[in-house]
Amino acid sequence: MIWRGVQEGDWVKATDTLAIGLFGNSTIKRGTKGVVTSVVSGWLTSRRVVVAFDSGFGSVNATVSTSEIRVVRREGGVDRFKARQSRLFAARVALGVFVTWP
């Protein structure tokens, strides 16, 4: 198999806990799934990608290095990931209602 780089639409997992935000005050836990929304590469920049990570009740966009993520599904698609994320959100809300129902 010929190795190819991370491309838009690939589903990924964080390989380590990632500090994000302006001051690194937010974190993405190891194993959090996400989808690559764009690839940022240039002459002076290392290979970086913008990933929309699933935060449980929405998504968090972060620019990370390709060494900080691992591809779990090639060409999974951004739309399919968003649809999966919305189904999981509905399941989480339904579970929350079921648990708190008297």
Kindly state the percentage of residues in helix.
10-25%
Q: SSE order, as H and E?
A: EEEEEEEH
Tell me the span between the first and last alpha carbons: 55 Å
| General shape | globular
Radius of gyration: 15 Å
Number of helices: 1
Strands in their spatial order, largest beta sheet: 6-5-4-1-7
Largest sheet: 5 strands, antiparallel
- Unreliable residue runs: none
How many domains is the backbone divided into?
1
Strand composition percent = 35-45%
Classify the secondary structure makeup into a structural class.
alpha+beta
Strand element count: 7
- Average pLDDT taken over every residue: 85
Explain what you see.
- With 102 residues, the chain is of the alpha+beta class.
- The protein has one domain.
- Helix content is 23%, strand content 36%.
- It is built from 1 helix and 7 strands; from the N terminus they run E-E-E-E-E-E-E-H.
- The chain has one helix at residues 78-100, and strands spanning 11-14, 18-20, 26-28, 33-40, 48-54, 59-65, 69-73.
- A hairpin with a 7-residue loop joins strand 4 and strand 5.
- The model has no long low-confidence stretch (mean pLDDT 85).
Topology:
Layout: E1 11-14, E2 18-20, E3 26-28, E4 33-40, E5 48-54, E6 59-65, E7 69-73, H1 78-100
